[in-house]
Amino acid sequence: MLLATVLALVGLTNHLFWDDEANTASYARNLLRFGRLTAWDGTNLVGYAYGGALGPDLGQELRVPALPAYVAALGMILFDGTSLKDLTFSGRIMFVVAGVLSVGLLAIWTRRYFGRRFPWYLPSLILAVSPAYLLYIRNCRYYALGVMFTLLVWMFWVPGVRRFHAARGRLFDSRSLLRYAGAAIAVLLLIGSHYLNAAAVLVTLPLFFFDRRFRQPRQYVLLGAIYAAALLYAGWILLTANPFAADYRATIDATLQSPQHATLWGRYAIRYATNFWWFLRDLGTHEFFPWCLVPVLVLPWLFRRLRGARRLSRRGGVLLAVVVANSALAAVLTPPDMGLGPTAEMRYVVPLIAVGSAVGGLAVVILWRLSRPMAAMALLLLVATNLLYPGFIAKRFDGTRLCWPPTLYRYVAEAFHDYPTGTEAMVDLLEQLPPGTTVRVFPGHMVYPAMFYVPKLHYCDQLSTSKKTNEELGPMPEYLFKERARPQVWLVPSPYVQQKLSELEDLAALDPGRTADSYTLKSTLPAYWQYTSKPEIPWHAFSRPTEDWYRLPFMSVLVLGGSPVQDHPALRHDPHDANTLYRMGLAFANTLQKDTARQWLQEALKINPKHVEAHYELGTLLLLEEQYGSAIKHLDTTLKLEPDHWGACLNIGKAYLAQGRNEQARQMFWRALEIKPELAIAHYNLGNIALREPGGPERAIVHYRKALEVNPRYVPAHVNWGILLFQQGKIDEAIAHYRAALRINPFHLQAHASLGMALQKRGDPDGARRHLQQALDRVPPDSVMGKQLQAALKEINGSS
C-alpha cells in the first residue's frame, strides 16, 4: 500500500483535469456551493449532449451516479486551495486514497479466496505497480471507487478458509447478519459509484457457485440479501434519477458502420460482437489482464507434481469466467453514443485490473511449484514489461516503441518530466480574458476543464432549444443554446476550422433574421489540442509525443468581429516567433485561404530560414496549386534540413508523378517507405506508377495489396484494385473491394460510381441505380463525371 501511495501521488498535479474529471469536479463544487447536485450554477451549465444528459431540473446527470461527486467534494473540503494545481489535487486525492485502500482489500480478499497458504501479498504487489491501475486511480472519476467497492462486495461474498458446515448451520447468527449487512451496504455503495460496475458484480456473483465452497445455504441467503438491496436501490434510482430518461439522440446506425442490408437486430448483433471482441482484446492491450499467463492454469492437469494446485487452478478458472462474463455484459451495456472504436470503453471494466493481478499472482504461484527460475522470470515480466498482457500489440499515441521502455518506467518518468497539454494551453489563454466573455469550444466535451478552472467566463452550446426545463428555473441565457449562441471567442482544432465556419454560414442561411457572424483567426495555441492525459495506456502520452509532435493539429483561436475582446492582448500572436507564424500559416491553410497561408509561412521563413515545417507546409501548398517546381524546391530544402522527413519524400514523389517523371517519383516513394514502412499511400502511388508502364496492372495490384496490408482501411487502394479487377472481368471480386471501401467511408464518390457500374454489369439494375444516384448526388451535373453517371442511369432506366 505504501508503494502504491508513492507511485500514485508523485506527479499527481502534472496535468489538469480532462473532460470527464472536470465534469465530476464541477458537480462537486456546485454541491459545496448549493448543498445539492446541480449542473446549473447560475452562470454556466454542465450540459453534456446539449442538456440531453440532464433532467428538466438541470440537476444530476442521469446516467452518472452521485457518489463520485460527493467523494470529490470531500477532497475539496479537506484540501482547499485556489491555484490550478491545488484545485486539481483536491479533486483527485480522495480517489487516490480509495485506490490505495483497494490494494489492501485485494490482499484480504486473496487470502480468503485462495486460502491461508497462498501468498496473499503477491496480487497486491502486482496491482500496486500496475501502470494501468495507477493511471485510473489518479482520476477524479468513479474508477477507484468501482474497484474498492467491487472488492468489498467480494470480500463479504467469499466464505473464507473454513467450510460453512463447521458453523453448525446457523444462518442468522450475529456474524452472519453482519456479513449480510456488510455485503448489502457494499453493493449499494457500488451502485452509487457506477451502474455498469454494479451490474457486472450482480451478474457474475453466481459464477462463484462453480466453486464447491460457495454452494452453502448461507451463500444463497447472502446472494438474496445482495439482490434485494440492489433491487430496492434500483427502484429508488428509477423514481428519482432515471438513467433511461437521458436523451443522447444517438442511433445504432450512427454509432457503428454496419452493412446497409442488415436488419436492426442484425446491426445490434454486429455492434455487440464488435464491442465484445474489443473488450477481450483490449484487456491485454490496455494492460488489464495477463492473457499470456492463462495457459498456466492448465498445467496442474498436465504435470503430476502440480496436482496439489488443481484446487487453486479451478478458482482461477472461475475468475477467468468472471472476466469473460464481465466483458460480455460491458459490450451489451455500452451506451449507444459510446463504443465507437477503434478500442473498447475500458473505463467500464477497471475492476478487472484487480482480477488480472489475482490471476497473474496465481500463475506465478503455480509456476513456482514447477520451476522457481521460471516463476521469478514470469513475475519480472509481469511487473516490469507489457509482454504477458500482451500490451505490445497496440500502437501508442506518444510514438514510443511498443515494448520498450516498460510502461512502469514511462509512468514514473512522466511524473518527473511534465509537458504542456492542449487543455493547459486553453486554460492559460482563457484565464486572461475579462469576466463574462462568451466562449465556444469545439469539440464540445473539451469545454468542461475550462468551465471548471475558469468559471468567470460564459460557455456556449450547453443546451438545445428543444430541451424542456422546469419553469422555476426561469429563462436561460441565450449563450447556452447552441442555436442562438454568438460566442466572442471560438476555440477550434485547426483541421476543423473551415468546417465549423461553413456550418455557421449554413445556420445563418436557415434563419432569415440572422446574419452570418464574421470571425477572424487571431492566434493559435502551441500544444496538441486532443487529450493526452486520459488513463488509457495506448492513448496516454507519457511525454510530449515524440514522433512529429510539432506536426500534430493545434487549437485555432477565432474572435468575433466587433466584439469587446477583439483587440485583447491575450488573443494576439507574437509576430517575432517563427513557430507562431508557422502555426498561423497552417491554420489559414486549413481554412482554404491559401494566399494568406503562404504569406504567413514566408514570414516564418524570414525569421527562421531553417524552419523545417514551414518549408514543408509551403512546399505542400505549392504542390496543391500545381506549382511543381517551386514545391520541389521547398521540399528539397526540407529534406536537406531533415533527411528522414517522410512527408517531404512523399510530396516530392507526387510532384514528380504529376510532371510525368515516373522513375524519380518511384525513387522518392521508395525512400519514404524506407523511413516509414507502414506508409500505405506510398505503396498506393507506386501502384499508380506501375499502371503507366507495360505489364502494369499485375504489378499495380501487388502494391495495392501491400497498401492494404499495412492499412486495411485505406480506401483508395480498395477502389483502384476494384477497378483493375473490373477491367479484368472479375466482377464479384471488384464488388467486394468497392463494398469494403464503402464500409469504411460510406460517402466515397468513386466507390459508389464504380460499384454502380459493377452491379449493372452483373445484372442488378436496382443496386446499380441506387449507387449511381448516390454518386450523382455528390458531383455537379454538368461535370464530366456527372454526365457519365447520368448516361449510365439513363441506360439502366431505358433497359428496365
Which tags fit this structure?
800 residues; Serine Threonine Protein Phosphatase 5, Tetratricopeptide repeat; 4 domains; single chain; 56% helix; five-stranded mixed beta sheet; mainly alpha
Brief overview, please?
56% of the residues lie in helices and 4% in strands. It has 32 helices and five strands. A five-stranded mixed sheet has the order 2-1-3-5-4.
Give an account of the 3D structure.
- With 800 residues, the protein is mostly helical.
- It folds into 4 domains: 2-414, no CATH class; 419-572, no CATH class; 574-663, Serine Threonine Protein Phosphatase 5, Tetratricopeptide repeat (Alpha Horseshoe); 677-800, Tetratricopeptide repeat domain (Serine Threonine Protein Phosphatase 5, Tetratricopeptide repeat, Alpha Horseshoe).
- Helices cover 56% and strands 4% of the residues.
- The protein contains 32 helices and 5 strands.
- The chain has helices spanning 2-9, 19-34, 67-78, 84-114, 121-128, 131-137, 143-157, 174-193, 195-204, 217-240, 252-255, 264-285, 310-333, 352-370, 372-384, 407-416, 422-431, 447-453, 497-510, 578-590, 594-607, 612-624, 628-641, 646-658, 662-675, 680-691, 696-710, 715-727, 731-744, 749-762, 765-776, 784-799; strands at residues 438-441, 458-459, 489-493, 519-528, 554-560.
- The chain has a 5-stranded mixed beta sheet with strand order 2-1-3-5-4.
- Helix 8 packs across helix 9 (195-204) and helix 22 packs parallel to helix 24 (646-658).
- Residues 163-168 and 250-261 have low confidence and may be disordered.
